[in-house]
Every structure is written in structure tokens, then in C-alpha cells.
Amino acid sequence: MDGVPRVPDQRRPAPGNAPEGLRPHFSVLGPVRAWHGAEQLSMGSPQQRALLAALLLRDGRTATSHELIDALWGEEPPSQALAAVRTYASRLRKVLPAGVLVSESGGYAVVVADGSLDLALAEDLSTEAEKARSVGDLCQARSLLNKALSLWDGEPLANVPGPYAETERTRLEEWRLQLLESRLDMDLEVGCHAEAVSELTALTAAHPLRERLRELLMLALYRSGRQAEALAVYADTRRLLDDELGVDPRPGLKELQQRILQADPALAEPSAAAPEPAAAAVRPAQLPATVPDFTGRASFVSELSDILSAAEGRVMAVSALAGIGGVGKTTLAVHVAHVARTYFPDGQLYVDLQGAGARAAEPETVLGAFLRALGTADSAIPDSLEERAALYRSVLDGRRVLVVLDNARDAAQVRPLLPGMEGCAALVTSRIRMVDLAGAHLVDLDVMSPEEALLLFTRIVGEERVQSERKAALDVVAACGFLPLAIRIAASRLAARRTWTVSTLAAKLADERRRLDELQAGDLAVKATFELGYGQLEPAQARAFRLLGLADGPDLSLAAAAAVLDLPVEETEDLLESLVDTSLVESAAPGRYRYHDLVRLYARACAERELPPGERESATSRLLDFYLATAARVYAIERPGDRTVDHLEVTDHLGQDFSDDAKALDWLHSEAACILACVQQSLEPRTLRRAVDLLLASKDLAESGASALRYELATSAARDAAAAVGDAHAEGRARVTLAQVLSKVGHFDKASAELERAARLGELSKDPWTCGNAPNEQGITAYCVNHHAASETYLLKAIDEFRSDANRAGEASALCNLSRVLVSMNRTSKAIDLARQGMAIYDDLGLTFRLANAKCALAIALNHVGRHSEALDQLTDALQMFVENRQRLWEGTTHFRIAQVHLAAAQSAQAAQHAEQALSIGCVGGEWMRANVLTLLGRSLDNLGQLDRARACWREALAIHEDSGAPEADEVRRLLAPVAAA
Secondary structure of 207-265 in the HEC alphabet? Predict the structure, then answer.
């Protein structure tokens, strides 16, 4: 749709007509109302409101008595119509401030100041939105239209009688739909396809004959990867139009169907061109600061800048810089990127791919960060690498963006991250030459020339100190192997020590026994560089440098570092900041510190060389204690009264304190990578049980979906480690925890196998945690595969085990799970009773998050007996609780439950809308649950007469169920059976 629709036949009054201080506010986009300040005025009878509406909609123009009579009664006015109009006007004049309702030339007018009528505000906002869209500012245009649409408060002119009001209602509703279509069109242009599907599904149900909405829904589905459903929408539309109106779809809809059938690549692009499509999204500026003393490399700067400046009008330019660690690849790339940034007005992206370390950044993770930086909503970011890469290229199409991919592992890591679009460019740095990166301009970066090295040294140390000792300075840079990082470290140390001369530094370098040989041996040059800085550390600094390098996580918080060093936080901060000054440690953010990958390796080598094994083990053990104790605090805050924390291994560290619940949860999610790295680093027999317990205490990382994959990998590793050493206690807990993860992604067979083994291990180890949680999880998995009798048996056992352990939270969990099972066995009265028992326990313990699960269980039971309104009340409460606790997958699951209730209550449009939201967010249960949502969505669409789209949903659901062997496949086959019979 071109532009933004404007309400027809509206004219604004001149500003300032109302007396100063007497500017009432009026609304017509809903009930006709008036306010004077904060006070709502009484507008009297429906006929009085009809008179006021007729005057408000004339924009200050005078309406004659005849026109008002016609507006209120049409062709059959009462005999006393004129007297009635005068009475209504008189009553309104008494209510409204003086000077608002005026009599002119035998008629009446209402004087409305600018900004005092909701309809006028909406028109102004739509006009501004049209201007923003015309210059390509889609983000602003969408925001303005959302503000305009928010002014509607139900049906326009609600309950206002008369033919004029009826005509105006129709006109205003049509305008609202046009505004909605325009905003949805822009939603698709900026990539919000998944979000749009839910809203469009509801709108097409409410307005089935509106072809523009159907067209937008087809496009949204296609861009969301749901081609079969998109084509099914066309088939449903064609049949409906033929049945209702005897016409075919309009040409635009037919054309879109053909383009979808042909998989037209242009459909993945914005539907309407704009001068600067990137202006609507965030313009990232992620380049790190360039160093102020950048030196030399003139030929490389010129060469690379020329390539980047010529990127416009060409297929993506890629330059790959290779060289040993410390040679200055990152410094050069960042400097060149700053020089060339004016050629990329739509932004610059930067990422450290951590290719030199043991855990290089995953391309899908990087793509998620890039898409967010480019303005893509989290809910619109797909899960798979291929889908993220495709969306990334689509978002970049038409933009001129520079992408700096620093510290890459290999070409395979880089390829999905390349923009691939004309006008964009990429700068890649790596320790290896990327000869297999097609089309890349390769640059081999060597050490500095002696002149460049001396100039860099001089700029850091100062001209005065170097000029008098030029020979010593040359000795220093030569001893550094002309490696930029080594020179920077050496010069920084000298600059920080005013009592040293250059000769002093040169003598210290000459005294290093292994250094010269190491500087000649490839990557060993980096180690020699670090040796130089390390050798000049004070003893306390050196100890901190060695011990902190033992941690596997990407960085360390100040509190975690203090635990490793066994020092007060203040003293730890002083040490870390002094290490930052030496360039051996980086400050990743306020209160967070990290090592360069190679510096970390060197720090560990120092620790292994200089510290006894016991001291190294004590340091990593203190870190594990810190994470376990703090995660246990978070767990206890989130789940007060849950006995899990009482069954965790005892730690020597008390853990970090939190001032409020939100900060505790923030800590857990911000430390996710560090926590899981610590688990995998701590799978030796002496720390194994604490590592497993850290997984138990941080289970929110799996339930939120944000770190689920890494959590699953860490849990699998813990299970294997425990099995290898025969630790039944740790293995049982690890298997239960892994089963919980597997169930949440729909792998019920694997989860069941883990739980069967865990149950035996729990009996063997007599661990109350495993003895209670294993049968509880067995009950859940059995329920999910429709083994209801077995599920009941497991859950009754779980209840007994939890009660014997005085674990009331566990008992409530099993009661709520059993409630769900009994509903499926048509024992609904008992199910309601069990759910309420669970709710009462959770409420008593203050377990907000778990109370949400109990509310869902109760809602399922209430829905089963037709108490739909009560069920929706429970689910609405639960949804809010899940949102507040950042349980994204449970949020999606609750939308599915809400959809079930609406479907049971014959509210198919609402059911379809919530089912779409569940698909967009994702649910606990993975692909199995996705298939269940698709089945429900199909039922809702079938009820709405959208038969072809319903069948498309069922076919996709059937494919998922057949692939996993789920019993729900039989139900879906029955739904599709009429199709086969036809």
C-alpha cells in the first residue's frame, strides 16, 4: 500500500479558537466523551451525544438545525425535532465550559482547540507517519501509526444513534483498517514477519473478505518459512470469495500466489522501495576505539582503504588479514575501518570471534547479536544458522555496512557472517591464511620494520627519553622481534616507570635467557612478548595473573576474581586494574575482566610452571564454590522453600549478595557462559559433585531457552564424567537434569532412558533429591507420550518421596503434574482438587514462578469441564508471571494453553491468534509441542473457514509427529482423513 491512509473529508479548525485555560478534550474513536481537565463530563442521553458527535466531526464548522435534524433522525424526524435539537444543545451548553458550544446563523458549532480531539490527533499522527515513510524512516512511521491506532477505544461513536453516526462509524472503522494495513505492510518491510502473522491471523478471521489483509498474511507466512500455509491462504480466499460474492481474487493476490509458487527471490525483499531503507533501523557503530598512537602500516592502510572505498556498486568486498598473534591484525583492521567508515553510512558491525581459543564463537550466536544490533526484534530472529544467515543478508540488502570479523578461527566460521550484498564489505583477521575464502583479498601481515617499530616505541615512551638513547631503543625493539604487541607492552612498562632509562629496559631484555630464541620461532614470539611483561610484575600481580588465567570462562566478574584469589574485593580490584595498565588483562566492561586468548594460555603455562598442583586446584575450586553458592542464592530467591538448595554440596564461599530479586536473575543470565564453562572445567572426581550441583542450581538457564544448548552439553559432559568414575550420587542428579532438558525440547524417549537409569542410581545412592525428582520427571515424560496410567504411578511415588523429604515445593510440582494426568483420564474433579493443593503450597512458600505452573494445571482442568472464563483468568495470571520471570518458553506454552481454552469456548479467532504467538515464541517441548500448536491452529482455522491453511498446518504437524514417532500422529491423520476421502 502506498503511503499512509488519511481519514477522508476532515478539516482542522484554526488553533487558539478556545478561550485560554478552557480547552476541554473530546473523544469520538470509541464512546463519545468529554473531559474538562481530569474531570469527565456527563454528556447526557444518547441523542445528546449524537448531537455533540455531529458537531465534533464538522471540525468547528457551523451545522444548521436542518443538518442536525437530518443527522439525528434521517428522513423520518419527529414532529418536535427542532425543539428537541434546541433542548439537547441547551443541556450540552450547561455541561461544557463557556464558549465551547456556540450558536451561529441559526445553527451550532463546537470550538475545539488543537490537540483536543482524538480523531484530529490520529489524523496528525498518520500525516507525520506518511512523511516519515516517504523518506524511508520506517521505524518512526510504524511508531507514529501505533500511536494513532492506540487512540481507538473500541467501536467509534459507540452507542450513538442516528444515520449520520452510523455512516461515520463505517468510515472511521475503514480508516482504522487502512492504518493497520499500512503499519503491517511496514512491519513486513522491516522483517517483523513472525510478529505480524499472529495479528494478521486474527484480523483475517474478523474481516474474511478483506483481500489486502489476506495478501499481507500470505507474504508474512512465506517470509516466515511457511510456504504451504501461504499458498493455503490463497486457496481459502479464492473459495470464500467465490462462495460469498461469486468473484475471483484480485490480480495482486493472484500474482503473489504465482510468485510464491515460483519461490521468487524478490519476495524476501521489502515490498516497497525507499530512498534509504536502512534509516528505519538501528545504525550500529560497534567499532572499538582506534589507538591514538597508531604507527606505520601506511601501505596496508592505503591498500585496504582503497578496496573498501570501492565497495559501492560492487559485490561485497572481503579483505582477510593473517599473521601471528600480537602482530597487530586487530589494531590495523580497526584503524582501517575507522578510516573507511564514511563509505559505510549505514553502520559498522564488529565481533571478536575468539578463534584462537578453545571455544570459538558460534556463527549463529554472532548472527543473533548482529541482527539485534541492526534493529531486528528478538522474536523475529529464527533459531537455525541457515535461517539467521538468510535474514541477516535480507536485513543488509540495500544498506552499506562494514563488518569487521576479528580473530576468526577459519573460513567456515566466517562464511555465514559475510554480508554478501552489493555495497557492503567485510574485514577479517585470523591467525591463518584464509585461502579457502572465495573472493577474499588476502593480506599477510608481518612484523613491523625497524623504523616503524622504533617510531611506535617512541610515541608511547616519549621523544625526549628515546632521543638520548636511540641505540638502546633499537636494542629494545629488536629484542621484541619488532612485534607490535611486544613493543607496546615493553614501552608501556617503561613509560610507567620514570626512574628507568631505556638502557635499563634493554639490559633487562638482554638478560632473558630464553627470550631471543623464542622470539625467532613463530608463535613463540608471542610467548616471549608476554614473558617480558610478566617478568616485570610485582609478586602479588604475578600471582593474580597466574591464578585468574586458570578460569575457562570468557571473562571474570570482580566478585568471581576475588574468589579465585581468596582476597577482598577492593584488593582484587586494585590488582586487576594494575594488570589492565600493563596490557596483560583487558577490562571488558566495568567490573569485568578478560584475557586475550594467547595471554590466557601463557598465564596458565606460568601457573603450571610456578605453582604446585594443590594451589592451582584450590583456585579453581574456590571459583566453583563461588558460582555454586551464588547460584544457590539465586535459586532460593526464585524458589523460596524449595529443598533443592538443602541438598547441594556444602561450599566454603558464601556467595554474592543481591539487593533485589531482579538483580539476582540478572546475575544468573549474565554469568551463564562463565557458569557453564566452570562446570565443564570441574568434572574431575574431587569437584564433580559440586559441578553437577551447579547445574541443578542454575537450571533457569535451561528453562529460559537462552542458554539451553550449552546447558545440555555441560549436563551431558557431567553425566559421562560421573559414569566414568562410578559416582552414583552425581550421575543420578546429572541424568535427571539432562532428562529435564531433553523433555523440554521434545526428546521424550531419550529423557525416559536417562530417568530409568537415574531412578536406579537414586535408590543405590539413597539421594533424596534424585529419589523425588526422577519419578516426577518420569511422570511428565510418560504423560507426554500418553502413557497415563504409568504417569500416575510415577507421580504418586514422587509425591511420597517428596513428602518423606519434607520437600513441599517438590510435592506441589508432582501434585500439579498429576492433575494434568487425571484430566487426560477424565478424573477432572480430583484434578481440580490436586491443582488447588499445589497452588496452596506454592502460595504459602511464596513461589511465584512455580505458582504460574500450578495455575496452568488448574486452567487445564477447568477448561476440561467447560469453565472457560475461570481457566482464562488463571492463564492470564500465569502468563504475566512467566514474563516477569523471563521464562520465554513457558510464556509461549501458556499462549498455547490460552489458545486451547478459546478453541473450546468456540472463540476460534482468538485461539488462532494465541496459537500464532506460541509458534512465534516457542514452547517447552520443542518440535513435539510445535506440532501440537500447529494442530490446534489448524482446528481454529478450519472453524474459521480457512480450510486449506488448516490442512497445511496439519500436514506440517503430521510430518513432525511421524518423524519422532509421537502418538499424536494418529489424531492428525484423522483430521486429514476427510481430505483423502474427498
Answer: CCCCHHHHHHHHHHHHHCCCHHHHHHHHHHHHHHHHHHCCCCCCHHHHHHHHHHHCCCH
Cα angle: 890, vertex 892, 896; to 5 degrees = 110
C-alpha cell at 896: 498455547
C-alpha pair distances (Å), 34 with each of 86, 224, 394 = 20, 44, 48
Q: What is the C-alpha separation between 783 and 789, in angstroms, rounded? A: 9
**Is 11 within 8 Å of 59 (Cβ atoms)?**
yes
**Confidence grade of residue 331 (pLDDT, cut at 50, 70, 90):** confident
Q: How far apart are CA 862 and CA 901, in angstroms?
A: 9
Q: Which residues contact 741 (CB under 8 A, 6 or more apart)?
A: 702, 708, 711, 712, 715
* Cα separation of the two ends of the chain: 38
* CA dist., res. 467 & res. 681, Å (int): 50
Q: Does residue 574 have a pLDDT over 60?
A: yes
Residue 810 has what pLDDT?
93
Q: How far is CA 344 from CA 51, 352, 397, 402, 869, in A?
A: 58, 20, 13, 6, 55
d(CA 564, CA 674): 13
pLDDT exceeds cutoff 70 at 305 = yes
pLDDT: which is higher, 445 or 427: 427
Task: Give the pLDDT confidence of 246-279 residue by residue, as tens digits.
Answer: 888 888 888 888 888 888 887 876 544 333 333 3
Q: Mean pLDDT across the chain, nearest whole number?
A: 85
Pairing state of beta strands 39-41 and 402-408?
unpaired
Q: Pairing state of beta strands 317-322 and 441-444?
A: parallel
Backbone φ and ψ of 110, nearest 5°: -110, 125
Phi-psi region of 30 (alpha: psi -120 to 50; beta: other; left: phi over 0): left
Q: How many CB atoms lie within 10 A of CB 47?
A: 18
If one counts every other C-beta atom within 10 angstroms of the C-beta of residue 141, the result is 28
> What does the alpha-carbon distance between residue 270 and residue 277 come to, in Å, rounded to a whole number?
9
DSSP 506: H
User: Pseudo-torsion of CA 483, 486, 488, 490, nearest 10°?
Assistant: -140
Average of per-residue pLDDT across 338-363: 83
Could you tell me the pLDDT band of residue 533, with boundaries at 50, 70 and 90?
Answer: low
- pLDDT above 60 for 668: yes
pTM over 0.85: no
Cell (9 digits) for 870: 475461570
pLDDT at 721: 97
Most confident residue range from 886-890, 937-941, 962-966: 937-941
Q: How far apart are alpha carbons 836 and 63 in whole angstroms?
A: 62
Are 167 and 306 within 8 A, CB to CB?
no
Reported as a pLDDT band with limits 50, 70 and 90, residue 8 is very low
Q: How far is CA 115 from the centre of its chain?
A: 37
The CA dihedral of 54, 58, 62, 63, to the nearest 10 degrees, is: -40
Q: C-alpha distances in angstroms, 767 versus 209, 393, 479, 753?
A: 63, 52, 61, 19
Set of cell numbers at residue 519: 622470539
Which residues sit opposite 592 in a β-bridge? 557, 589
Going by C-alpha positions, the residue among 266, 328, 304 that lies closest to residue 425 is: 304
- E-strand spans in 25-71? 25-27, 33-36, 39-41, 63-64
- Residues 6 or more apart whose CB falls under 8 angstroms from that of 247 comprise 241
Give the three-state DSSP class for 382: coil
At residue 31's C-alpha, the angle toward residues 25 and 32, to 5°, is 45
- 895 is written with which cell numbers? 499462549
Q: For the chain, count helices (H), then strands (E).
A: 45, 14
Q: What is the mean pLDDT of residues 476-498?
A: 78
